[in-house]
Design goal:
The structure is a single chain. The two termini are 38 Å apart. By secondary structure, the protein is mainly alpha-helical. The protein has three domains: 2-63, no CATH class; 68-177, Orthogonal Bundle (Arc Repressor Mutant, subunit A), CATH 1.10.10; 194-265, HRDC domain (DNA polymerase, domain 1, Orthogonal Bundle), CATH 1.10.150. The strands form two sheets. It has a two-stranded antiparallel ribbon. The protein is globular and about 65 Å long. It contains 13 helices and four strands.
């Protein structure tokens, strides 16, 4: 795709450049799709097949793994929506990914996107995963790309409906190694469930934003990592964790316990634990 973009930049006609960019996006969507290849090709030419599968292409013979991508979808669409409410109404797909990852890049800070509620809520997953999610949401018609060299992304009416109604969404699992899906702890950090840790960071950010205080005022990372290691089930267990005093337990404890319970009730508990 990088070489193709370089070739596109060499095209003299702006109109032909835009056509080439649209074709490249379609090619990438086709390559990453988990749908029957024959069905996709016929749909491109305006034809529909009665049978959903041809039983001959790679996706039919070896179906791609799918997963419940509702949470990722809502996070991505919410981030696009939040950016749309800011003074910089539309940005590129990779900028949205940077916000989800919690980037502190100069552009993120100068545009005030580090203050968005969606900043950092996707830090538990790698960049490649979020890029693939974004492309799938475009292919599904939830997002639209504006024409031009620096294509910006925005919500479609369908995307707004998905976000508003919190519709379930199934996505094709990106072709990433399992090791790449979980961030490894840095030297000296407590080994814990990294996915739960990032979710607890999200709770902390929401609480801190609500009172206009820095996040560390709520709980430090060491305390959050200990929560993500022991999975406290009640106030008594949470109160035993270093850094959780009586006042903070009463004021902030319920929100963190609710998040931990919700996480434990969902699928894949412990899948983010490193070294365990």
């Amino acid at each position: 795709a990088v070489k193709q973009r370089q070739f596109i930049e060499e095209i003299s006609s702006a109109r032909e450049q835009e056509v080439a960019r649209a074709q490249l996006r379609q090619m990438i969507a086709y390559a990453e799709s988990g749908e029957c290849r024959r069905t996709s090709l016929l749909a491109y030419f305006g034809e529909n097949r009665e049978e959903p599968q041809c039983d001959a292409c790679d996706n039919c013979l070896e179906p791609r793994d799918t997963f419940d991508g509702t949470i990722e979808t809502l996070k991505f669409l919410s981030c696009v929506y939040r950016v749309g409410q800011s003074r910089v109404a539309r940005t590129g797909l990779n900028h949205i990914v940077d916000i989800l990852l919690g980037s502190q890049a100069e552009k993120i800070r100068s545009w005030g996107h580090d203050a968005l509620s969606t900043h950092g809520i996707g830090a538990d997953l790698p960049r490649g995963h979020w890029q693939a999610v974004g492309r799938q949401l475009i292919a599904k018609g939830f997002l639209e790309m504006a024409p031009g060299k620096f294509s910006t992304v925005g919500l479609t009416e369908e995307g707004r409906a998905v976000l508003r109604e919190r519709r379930p969404v199934t996505l094709v699992r990106p072709l990433l190694t399992s090791e790449a899906l979980v961030r490894k702890p840095k030297a000296g950090e407590i080994e814990c469930d990294e996915i739960l840790f990032e979710r607890l960071r999200g709770v902390r950010k929401r609480l801190a934003d609500a009172i206009g205080k820095p996040a560390y005022i709520i709980f430090g990372d060491v305390t959050l990592r200990e929560m993500a290691r022991v999975y406290p089930e009640n106030e008594d267990e949470l109160g035993r964790i270093p850094g959780v005093g009586e006042r903070k337990l009463a004021e902030y404890g319920p929100a963190f316990l609710e998040e931990i319970r919700a996480y434990r009730a969902g699928p894949g508990i412990g899948s983010g634990r490193v070294g365990g």
